[in-house]
């Protein structure tokens, strides 16, 4: 997953986010911090040590993320990724991971511009208010972006969503 993200970033010369923690780049950090939970020797502050980042980037997703950001940015991590710098001061990966989960819920899952396009189903059900009656609602009301590939809006397991993939 992370390799594909890096290829897309390089191909389209995308910036990995001001903090490296945005809609598109958040999950590798969340999964990477989960992978490091309970690690006996590596602490979050190790992201500032180039040798450690290089040594563990092949084994741990979080360090691969840091290595990638360092490869496309010229200044120190403290300068261009202040949130990652702040997170590195947390004492344990358990706390980093629980904070990442809370932040992901607040900054991604609870944001309408992101979740209005999410395809809900049996794995991740929608438990919000019932969708509007599609016969009385203009599918283009309330948003200015076109529907990708002209696909219609649809009701999937109780969630009024639109089918397209964000890249």
Automatic annotation (TrEMBL):
Q: GO cellular-component terms in the record? A: cytoplasm; nucleus; protein phosphatase type 2A complex
Q: What is its EC number?
A: 5.2.1.8
Q: What is its main location?
A: cytoplasm
A Pfam family of the record is: PTPA
* GO BP: mitotic spindle organization
Location within or outside the cell: Cytoplasm
- InterPro entries, per the entry: Phstyr_phstse_ac, PTPA_C_lid, PTPA_sf
Q: Name one GO molecular function term.
A: protein tyrosine phosphatase activator activity
* Reaction it catalyzes: [protein]-peptidylproline (omega=180) = [protein]-peptidylproline (omega=0)
Q: Which UniProt keywords apply?
A: Cytoplasm, Isomerase, Rotamase
What's the family?
Belongs to the PTPA-type PPIase family.
Q: Which PANTHER family match?
A: SERINE/THREONINE-PROTEIN PHOSPHATASE 2A REGULATORY SUBUNIT B, SERINE_THREONINE-PROTEIN PHOSPHATASE 2A ACTIVATOR 2
Q: What does this protein do?
A: PPIases accelerate the folding of proteins. It catalyzes the cis-trans isomerization of proline imidic peptide bonds in oligopeptides. Acts as a regulatory subunit for PP2A-like phosphatases modulating their activity or substrate specificity, probably by inducing a conformational change in the catalytic subunit, a direct target of the PPIase. Can reactivate inactive phosphatase PP2A-phosphatase methylesterase complexes (PP2Ai) in presence of ATP and Mg(2+) by dissociating the inactive form from the complex.
Any idea what this protein is called? Serine/threonine-protein phosphatase 2A activator
Naturally occurring in which organism (per UniProt): Tetrapyrgos nigripes
